[in-house]
Design goal:
Helix content: 55-70%
Distance between the termini: 27 Å
InterPro entries: SLC26A/SulP_dom, SLC26A/SulP_fam, STAS_dom, STAS_dom_sf
Subcellular location: Membrane
Main location: membrane
Strand content: under 5%
Keywords: Membrane, Transmembrane, Transmembrane helix
Membrane topology: Multi-pass membrane protein
Oligomer: single chain
Number of strands: 6
Length: 635
């Protein structure tokens, strides 16, 4: 192919791909750790500051209320008072209902709307998140702990385990925040959470049929088959009075929600409607419960497991809700700060008779629509709940179980987001499959099965992305130097004699074997296609590495093997646009010497031009030889 002539005549016309200067290993390691754990670079504000200023900034970073409190004004306070009172009207019935869902005394639900919101108001970074109990973790607590300790036969031990689980949930959440490991929660994808929450909401609704139908005995299983079997095997015990009352109150709650959605100014109707049903509550604020943390219990392992599982679900929901409303108001929330805030408020809650809390969507939406400006609305809500606990509980009359069941069903129907599932089907079929699998796992198995299925499907997708990266053939866009996928752009045309393959992912041990086989198959397909056409035979394979951010030793071995395969077929391999990290490793492994520096280019266009230059030169030299040949030579 005239490589020596090519090196002299063409190589000086293009810019070489440079190898970055070497860095000390320790410096590189620290840079990678910083990029992983501190992508937001929280330390930049401390640079070039005096010690006193650094201490002040540090306190403001870990206790955000110190940052915004000096700018707080009376206009904000008026808005926060209205919002706080509004969400308190929702917190009271929801707290009672969700406590029942966790098989806890109703007053525990109110305790959980007093201390944790106070803690979050000091440490949280979201302006709109309203703190309280949520349905899915409540159901998880009941399902996981209830298997080992019956809450009706041994309520004291069960309550101790709930407080212990809440304590470890807080420890786990705070640890993730302090260690900057918030990215772990990102493994629960949107599709996973959507399916899991929808399935859990369905299970919760099915469980409430016990109250709606007035049944005394009911299954402790959560799967749909067990629930249906329990319901239809007791048809003779159905109470039509209870069913009518439950359906009427459920219709009333759904009607108020409909009006609040149609006319956002009527948000208070939906928020306060459940208050019409409040029942008897124990008087007095949160008693201390640190002495009830069961660290020496035989069920400690179960409590830790429950705490970790529920903490992840609570984190995922709380941070997702906080981010959603932050986007609407054009401000950012710090995920790691949120984890620390959630963790510390749950640790404090476990010591003050509270169980797991986070930022529920329904309460936060009401808080947002009520016009809250800061987290002071949480303080107002907590104060309203405190006043209720101290003075107003004797005024409440007994609430039938059927009404609490209706409140829970109304809240759960809002969690089942079928429109989002339809959108997943339209946009990404695999995401839809993940969502449906998670939903089916919860409804037909159990909450734990659904969670395992959801996480497994999410991890499977991550593995598929890593182990089976996209590769595609590039072609030239007419009248330009741009090369794009020939599948995506119908006008893109392949270059005669040249195969351009784009690798769309880093090359690691997990995908190296697949990429070797896929590149070989692309070469086979191209050669087979050219055998049936009049085009020039394949002579060059260009690997576009612009999307290859990194490569390991297995990836380098793969490239060496691809080169050997190409050599056996009399093909030349070229690299286009390898990144700095890739070039450093190729240089240290001596692969650059193996392939030749002259065969590594800045762009695909330059690589193609080089190939065309050689093809044209060879063609021209071949014609000269043919024209200079004598008649005797031809004979």
């Amino acid at each position: 192919m005239g490589n020596a002539d090519f090196d002299h005549q063409y190589s000086h016309h293009h810019q070489r791909v440079e190898i970055p200067p070497p860095k000390p290993f320790l410096k590189t390691l620290m840079s990678n750790v910083k990029e992983t754990l501190f992508p937001d670079d929280p330390f930049r504000k401390f640079k070039n500051q005096p010690l006193s200023k650094k201490i002040s900034l540090g306190l403001q970073y870990f206790v955000p209320i110190l940052d915004w409190a000096p700018r707080y004004n009376f206009q904000f306070f008026k808005a926060d008072v209205i919002a706080g009172i509004t969400i308190a009207s929702l917190a009271i019935p929801q707290g009672i209902s969700y406590a029942g869902l966790a098989n806890l005394p109703p007053v525990i639900g109110l305790y959980s709307s007093f201390v944790p919101p106070m803690i979050y108001a000091m440490l949280g970074s979201s302006k709109h998140l309203a703190i309280g109990n949520v349905a899915v973790p409540s159901l998880l607590i009941s399902a996981m702990l209830g298997k080992f300790v019956n809450p009706h036969e041994n309520p004291n031990l069960y309550l101790q385990l709930v407080f212990t689980a809440t304590f470890f949930a807080g420890v786990f959440q705070a640890s993730l925040g302090f260690l900057r490991l918030g990215f772990i929660v990102d493994f629960l994808s949107h599709a996973t959470i959507l399916g899991f929450m929808g399935g859990a909401a369905t299970v919760v609704c099915l469980q409430q049929l016990k109250g709606i139908l007035g049944l005394v005995q009911f299954t402790h299983q959560t799967d749909i088959l067990s629930v249906m079997r329990s319901i239809f095997s007791q048809m003779h015990q159905w109470r039509w009075e209870s069913g009518v009352l439950g359906c009427c109150f459920l219709f009333f709650l759904l009607l108020t929600r409909y009006f609040s959605k149609k006319k956002p100014t009527f948000f208070w109707i939906s928020a306060m409607a459940p208050l019409t049903s409040i029942g008897y509550l124990k008087k007095g604020i949160n008693p201390p419960s640190y002495s009830q943390l069961a660290f020496s219990s035989q069920y400690l392992t179960i409590a830790i497991k429950t705490g970790v599982v529920t903490s992840v679900i609570a984190l995922a929901e709380g941070i997702a809700v906080g981010r959603s409303f932050a986007i609407l108001e054009n401000y950012d929330i710090d995920g790691n700060k949120e984890m620390i805030a959630f963790g510390l408020m749950n640790i404090a809650g476990s010591c003050t008779s509270c169980y797991l809390t986070t930022g529920p969507f329904s309460r936060t939406a009401v808080n947002f629509n009520a016009g809250c400006k800061t987290v002071v609305s949480n303080i107002v809500m907590a104060t309203a709940v405190m006043i209720t606990l101290l003075f107003l509980t004797p005024l409440f009359h007994y609430t039938p179980l059927v009404v609490l069941s209706s409140i829970i069903i109304a809240a759960m129907l809002g969690i089942i987001d079928y429109n989002a599932a339809i959108r997943l089907w339209k946009v990404d079929k695999y995401d839809f499959l993940v969502c449906v699998s998670s939903y089916i796992g919860v409804v037909f198995g159990s909450v734990e099965v659904g969670l395992i299925v959801a996480v497994a499907m999410s991890l499977l997708r991550v593995l598929l992305f890593v182990a089976r990266p996209k590769t595609f053939v590039l072609g030239k866009i007419p009248n330009s130097m741009t090369y794009r996928s020939i599948e995506q752009y119908s006008v893109a045309s392949s270059v005669p004699g040249v195969l351009i393959i784009h690798i769309d992912a880093p090359i690691y041990f997990a995908n190296a074997s697949y990429l070797r086989e896929r590149i070989s198959r692309w070469i086979d397909e191209e050669e087979e296609k050219q055998r049936t056409s009049t085009e020039i035979e394949l002579q060059y394979v260009i690997l576009d590495m612009s999307a290859v951010g990194n490569i390991d030793t297995s990836g380098i071995s793969m490239l060496e093997e691809v080169k050997r395969i190409a050599d056996r077929r009399c093909l030349k391999v070229l690299l286009a646009n390898p990144g700095g990290e890739v070039m450093k490793k190729l240089d240290k492994s001596n692969f650059i010497d193996t392939i030749g520096k002259e065969w590594i280019y800045l762009t695909v266009g330059e690589a193609v031009n080089a190939c065309n230059y050689i093809l044209q030169t060879c063609k021209f030299q071949s014609k000269r030889i043919d024209s200079s040949a004598t008649p005797d030579d031809n004979v």
